[in-house]
Target: Ribulokinase
Amino acid sequence: MLPVTVASGREKGDGVGADAYAVGVDFGTLSGRAVVVRVADGAELGSAVHEYAHGVIEERLPGGGPRLPPDWALQSPEDWRDVLRTAVPEALDAAGVDPADVVGIGTDFTACTVLPAAADGTPLCERHPDRPHAWPKLWKHHAAQPHADRINALAAERGEPWLARYGGKISSEWEWAKGLQVLEEDPETYAAAERWIEAADWIVWQLTGTESRNVCTAGYKGIHQDGSYPSAEFAAALNPGFAGFTGKLGHDLAPLGGRAGRLSAEAAGWTGLPEGVAVAVGNVDAHVTAAAADAVRPGRMVAIMGTSTCHVMASDRLAEVPGMCGVVRDGIVPGLWGYEAGQSGVGDIFGWFAETSVPASYAREADARGMSAHEYLTSLAERQNVGEHGLVALDWHNGNRSVLVDHDLSGVLVGQTLATRPEDVYRALIEATAFGARTIVETFEASGVPVEEFVVAGGLLGNRFLMQVYADVLRRPLSAIGSGQGPALGAAIHAAVAAGAHPDITAAAAAMGKRIPDAFVPDPARADAYDRLYAEYRRLHDHFADGAVLHRLRAIRNEAAR
Ligand SMILES: Nc1ncnc2c1ncn2[C@@H]1O[C@H](COP(=O)(O)OP(=O)(O)O)[C@@H](O)[C@H]1O
Ligand SMILES: O=C(CO)[C@H](O)[C@H](O)COP(=O)(O)O
Model:
C-alpha cells in the first residue's frame, strides 16, 4: 500500500473564514447525494441527487451474460464517479456558493461494499467486465453466507479473541466472507486483486489520487481489532490460498475526522471544486450520521432508518453484546468505543410489499389521491387499533443482521385469515421492524451498555405513523435528526474537521449537527398493547432462530433455481 499521511483537524489550521463551506457526499444503495453546508452552523444551502445508472446489479452483469446466482448484489464504480461529476456541481449551483469558499469535501458509503482493484486503484471489473466476481459486491450481497459460517465455526473452535467483538458472529456481508467467496469461486480474479478495498476508501482514492484506509470500515467490516487483522494462520486454515488475504487490505489506518489528502486536479475537474481542498478520511453512512444528529456522546443510539437500519452508539465502556455487528475503538469518534447493530431489511421490506402485493384497486385509489403506495397503505393502517389485524411478522426478509447474524433466515407472517387486507400486512411488517429494533436495544442494555437516548434518522423519518409505532414499541421518547440528509451532512461535518474548521468531530457535531429531542412520545395504552404483541414476536423469533425450517426452504429454493 502507498504511504498515507493523515493529519487530524487540530494539526492543520488551514485557516477557515466565517463563510466557509464543506461538501458532503453520501453514496447510498441506489443513488448518491451531495450537500453544501456552512461550516459555522451546519446550514444546508444546496443539494443534488444522482441515481445510479445501474442501480443494484442483481440479475445480470451490465454487459449481459448468464443470470447471477441468488443473493448476489453488485454495483458499478462508474456510477459512483458519476455522482462526483454530476451531484457535486449541481449541489454547488443549487447552493449559489462560490466553489472558492469550499474548504473540504467528505464522503460516506454503504458498507461493507467492497471491490477487487489493481495496485493503482483500477477496479478489476473495468478490466474484466464479463467476470461477476470482478465487480464490487454491495453490502447486501448475501451469497457468502456459507463462507461466513465457516469463518464463524473456525473462529469459535480456535477461540479467536476478536470474535466476541462481533457479538460472536461475523456477517456474510463483510470483507472476509466476500473475499473468501471470490477466492473459492474465481481464483483468477482473487489473484489479480492486488487490493480488496471498501468503496468508502476507494472513492477517497478517486478524490485524492492516493490510497488510504479508514479505521471504521477496517474495524467493523475487516475484523481489525487491537492493531491487527486475524492472523495468516487463521486465514490459511480457512483455505491455504487465503493465507495472504490481509496483504490486500490496508494496514496504516486513518482516524475519522482526519484528512486523507487533498483534492487532485482530476477530481477538481469532475466536481468543480478547487484543487487542493481537504478530503476527509472515508467513512460509513451510518457512522457519519451520528455526527449529523449531534449524537456522538456516549449513550445516544442513532438508528439510521432507510432501506436497512443501522444502529450506532458511542460508549465509554467495552462490553460483549450478543449478535451486535461490532464494537470498534475510535469507530464512530476518536477516544470512545463505537457500537454497531443493524437490521438488514427495513424500508426494503415495505418496498417489496408495496411493489408486489398491492391490488390494482389500491393502486388506482392511491393514484387518485396523489399518494404513493406507501402513503396510501400507511393511511389505511394507521386507523387500526394495536393488534386489530391479528398478525405478527418476523422482519427477516433480507436476513437477520442482529441479534442472530444469519442472512439465510427469511421473513415470516402468521395469523392471516380470509379477512386479512394489504394494509394489515403492511402494518404488521412495520411493527415487526420495530420489534426487531426493541430486541436490539434490550440486548444492549442486558449486556451492560445503556441506551440513554434513541435518535432516529434516515428516509423513513418521513413516515410519522411508522415513527410513532417505534416510540410505542420501544416505550421511550424518540429524538429525531433535524436534517433530511443525515449521512451527507455527517460527511460534510467530517470534511469541516478535516479542513481544520473545528477542532474535532464532537465540537463540529455540536456546531453543525441537528437533533430534536422528544420528537415522538409513546402513548402508554398503545405501548401496553404492543407489549403483548412483542411477547408473541419474541416467541416466533426464538422458534425460527435456529433456521431449521427457514434454512431448509432456502436450500430447496437454491436447488430449484440451479
Ligand atoms: N412512506 C414510506 N413508508 C415506509 N417506507 C417507505 C416510504 N417511502 C419509501 N419507503 C422505503 O424507504 C426506503 C428508502 O429509504 P431511504 O432512506 O430514502 O434510502 P437509503 O436507505 O437507501 O438511503 C425504500 O426501501 C422504500 O421502500
Ligand atoms: O451496513 C451498513 C452500514 O454499516 C448499511 O446498512 C448499509 O451501508 C446500507 O445502508 P442504507 O440502508 O442506507 O442503504
Remarks:
- Residues 28-30, 306-307, 347-348, 350-351, 374-375, 378, 458-460, 462-463, 466 surround adenosine-5'-diphosphate (ligand 1) (CB under 6 Å).
- Confidence is low (pLDDT under 50) at residues 1-14.
- The two ends are 40 Å apart (CA to CA).
